[in-house]
Here is the input.
Amino acid sequence: MSEQVDTFITTPGKLPHIVSWWYWRCRTTVPTMRELAELPGIESTMVFANATSSRPQFGWDAESTGRADTVILSDDNWQADALRVLDEHPNALHLFGGYQRGMPRLEATLKHVIQRKIRYGIISEAPLNMSVGWRKPLKDLYLQKVLPGRVQHVTSTAEFIASMSGQRFDLLTMIGWPPEKIFPFGYFMPDRGVYAKDALHEDGKARITTVGYLKPYKGVHVLLKALSLIRKWGLDFECNITGEGPCRPDLEQLNRELKLTDSVHFHGFIDYDVLNEMIGDTDVQVCPGLAEPWGVRINESIQAHSATVTSDRLGAADLIDASGAGHLFRCSDEGELAQCLYELLSDPRRLVGAKRAAKAYSPYISNATAARYLFNILHYVCGNTSLRPVPPWRGDEARAAAHAAWQSSFK
Here is the structure.
């Protein structure tokens, strides 16, 4: 078994040119690749199937690629553009940000890479069933019986997969990925520069926030039921819910039925600056998703030095488990969610401790830290080191820093 390391690898080995392929210039992926391009010995190209940002309604602009060369596939002649990149970099290590359905330009290019026997790896989520109702068992059947055959040409030829779903190895091995090819990864965001305060609000009300789309798998109905419980237990709070989606009418009706309308407010999509102000005023951000590959709002909550309470069915729950910057609750269990909120909000020491843990832990989930970890993975895959990397955000140093910060609130 290889040794493991969560620090920056120094090796005399050289990496090949790195060509990464993405659907669009997304704020959750490009900044990390931009930081990778700054590291010693790295020469890189980023290729995008589309020129746009992924979520303009959130105020996300198309991200800069920094020192990396940039190629945007044209709509009229994208196949020729993609083949030109392969011709220009025949000895490169290619990284594909997707290999399943929904990204036809990347899938088509990946087939050429396999045919040419070019080295490549995958940076992508584990498959996950986020369907509800009658679609859910059908999706389970597809994932178990159909998908392994569809992706066998990738799982057998890729050199590795950096899983954007964290530690969910079982979902990857289920479709044929050998465990030794899997490295836990995730999505990482630039720091907004907005930070919550340790001090409690003068009016005595805790500020709770949840952000994102209002879709069934987001679990906002679980949060509303939990809020109804903590009100019965005597806690005073204000909860802000942002985002739009098909569930909003039903959620607003549930809010009325639970008599929470004086404390729970639906805002829809809001301006980026307004959201920043809201995040800076937040004590606890709740991520109640029923099933999500990652959940980048957990990153943002930690970076904002807020406490976080999250369902255990989000990939980024790894970050809360490692940092102690909040609590995990069992998916769909509004009673356990209510208990987690009560423990944080009824004891100022616990709330302040979680906020301090988030502050101490946040450097370990920066884009620069994620890039150094990916750098280590690439050197390991290329045979330049026998040290198998472990994620810095799960390393002993990160855990110790967060734990010491948490304990400081009890002194």
